[in-house]
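Human: If only I could read backbone structure tokens as easily as an amino acid sequence. Take your time, and here it is.
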Amino acid sequence: MSASEEIAAAAAVLVVEHGLEYAAAKRKAARDLGRRSGRSGDLPTNEAVEDCVREHLALFCADTQPGELRALRELAATWMERLAEFRPHLGGAVWRGTATRRSAVLLDLYCDDPKALAVALVNRGLDYDVDARPGPRQEEVEVLTLHVPCRELGTPVPLVLSVLDLDAQRGALQPDARGRSWRGDLAALRRLLDAAEPPR
């Protein structure tokens, strides 16, 4: 097994069992395995990690994961409806079909005024934490995180809102190396819920 394959397998466990996102899981897996994470040749692609995630889910979570995924997708749909004015797109494990109860709901929001979202949340009496991450063009993007109840799972779920400018929406549906999208809008999510199958 190559270094990249080892990291992908270890990262998949971190994704499923601890809810890490792929980038963080790859870095931690590389450190845990004593690999130099700065060497680009050692780090697997997101698609390779996702393949390992799907294998892990099939082996260890086949009886629980489909129901947890559906609950999280329904929760995402509810919040996408509530935040419709900000053109929400769902990403991450909930969109790609690999989510478990430990996964966060990741929404990218597109608006002219980044502060408008914060105002909307405050007006609804919602508390949130603020952070930042690199955006699609490596600019700093504001990230607001709420913990929202999920009745079906009986636990609060992190709802992570990334605030992007309208220009970034043009690349929102860019496919991965296999032609599948990394995110989708509410109409696409509803099709997945109706079909009860992973995105294509």
